[in-house]
Amino acid sequence: MMHYLLKRLALVVPTIFIILTLNFFVIQLCPGGPVEQMLARIQGEERSLLERAGASGQDEIKTVQSSLDNMGTYRSDGGLDPELEQRIKRYYGFDKPLLERYWMMLSGFARFEFGDSLFRDKSILELVREKLPVSLSLGLWTTLISYIVSVPLGIRKAIRAGSSFDAWTSFAVVAASAVPTFLFAILLVILFAGGSYWDLFPLRGLVSPGFDDMSLAAKVVDYAWHMTLPVLAMVIGSFAGTTLLTRNCFLDEIGKQYVVTARAKGLTENRVLYGHVFRNAMLIFIAGFPGAFISMFFTGSLLIEVIFSLDGLGQMGFAATMQRDYPLMFATLYISTLLGLVIKLVSDITYTFVDPRIDFSAVNSRGS
Which of 209, 249, 337, 359 could in theory staple to 281 by disulfide, Cβ–Cβ 3.0 to 4.6 A? Predict the structure, then answer.
């Protein structure tokens, strides 16, 4: 087992290296980088200023043009001063060769030094710490509640396979999963967040103003109050696959010989199901939990964050992509990839605790 773990840990570095390298050089080919974004913003501000001055006559336009000239941003031919462009490139570090910027990124990431965001005037670690509670709350509670609902429901469906309960619950969960999550979110806003009917839940933020001054019980209630609708919207559309997978896994295990033998020995049905079948049927969920959590944590909450005005990693990552905030983009990619690889390794270790028969070292030796 130790040999397997060391080998997996050794693969983490080249995996992250390949992912970062591919993304770095592909993104450099995309038009509209941070320098171009800033130049376009300056040009837009100058154009807007001149248009507003135009309403006051030619004398005002000349005054504005003179002011822009003094700032070193405006040229008589309508373009930007080349010296300004060079200053912007130096400010963003784009005056350095491509390979030098690439190695600077890798060396910084190796020391967990991500630098500052190009457009937010904050360090990237500070930004991640600010947004982390929202995304962590959405991902963790959605995944846990989804499993808490899906596993018992799937077991019940397996026990009553072929019954009317099995049929109508299958229809319900499949129909729920077919509806996009954001539609559920909008429906919940309309019904329960003051959209058209009841104004029962808040529509902004993770906690209420004055949260730090509340008692512990009040903090728990306030936090749950804010989380109810976003988590419910994500859970409704996410538990169908887990429910049906649980049902099918249990049905497959129930038909095996060891279950027949256990029943023949006189064990109760609950002892058979939860003492023997459950452990074997749940292995697939242990493998799938990290992937489900990472998916919810980093990608599944963007629309929910927008609809419920939650400022999390989803919105930050989307804004960084639109603004071409390269340091923030690559840091988010690095953190999510590293976290995903580590959690996947933890799930393999958990495998061995749930079922000691699994020996990754033996599998590794046969593969080599």
Answer: 249
Sequence-ordered list of residues with C-beta below 8 angstroms from that of 96, at least 6 positions apart, any chain: 104
**Closest listed residue to residue 273, CA positions, set 265, 263, 285:** 263
pLDDT at 61 over 50: no
62, two tokens: 């000349």
Closest C-alpha among 136, 113, 181 to residue 313: 136
Count the alpha carbons within 13 Å of 288 in the hemisphere toward its beta carbon: 14
Tens of pLDDT, residue by residue over 231-276, are 888 888 777 778 888 888 888 888 788 888 888 888 887 888 877 7
| Residue corresponding to tokens 């609950």 | 270
Token duo for residue 352: 């061995």
Q: What is the pLDDT of residue 18?
A: 92
Q: Beta-carbon neighbour count of residue 323 at 10 Å?
A: 20
Alpha-carbon distance 251 to 157, whole Å?
A: 9
The tens digit of pLDDT for each residue in 203-237 reads 888 888 888 888 889 999 999 998 899 988 888 87
Q: What's the CA gap between 328 and 73, in Å, rounded?
A: 28
Alpha helices in 160-215 (DSSP H): 164-178, 181-192
Residues 215, 339: Cα–Cα separation, whole Å: 33
> Is there a contact between 153 and 169 (Cβ–Cβ < 8 Å)?
yes
Q: State the sign of the Cα–Cα–Cα–Cα dihedral 222, 223, 224, 228.
A: positive
Q: What is the pTM of this model?
A: 0.72
Is-contact 304 310, C-beta < 8 A? yes
